[in-house]
Design brief:
Blueprint lengths: L5 E4 L11 E8 L4 E8 L5 E2 L6 E3 L5 E3 L12 E2 L5 E3 L1
Antiparallel strand pairs: 1-2, 2-3, 3-8, 4-7, 5-6
């Protein structure tokens, strides 16, 4: 039996605490929610995503970020010459 996949491209949001990252796409299945994120920052500088980061829904429920691909929570992510990076 295949799991169903729900995809939202360029989701809207009410608040955020960063202009450095933007959620490009959300993919939700019955076992996981995966965010496709784009980062925009000064070339050859670093950004960092805190291991304490979370998403909060309109009911106030917080969803912890458990990990990432192409990024390690709490570690420096160096930006390329273009100043843009996906993870």
């Amino acid at each position: 039996m295949q799991s169903k996949e729900w995809v939202v491209k360029h989701p809207s949001f009410e608040t955020c605490n960063s202009t450095t990252i933007e959620i490009d796409k959300v993919v939700q299945t019955d076992t996981a929610t995966v965010l496709h994120i784009k980062a925009f920052f000064r070339p050859k500088n670093w950004i960092q995503i805190s291991p304490d980061s979370y998403l909060k829904d309109d009911k106030g429920i917080k969803y912890a970020i458990k990990g990432g691909l192409d990024i390690t929570l709490g570690k420096y992510l160096w930006m390329p010459k273009s100043g843009e990076r996906d993870f």
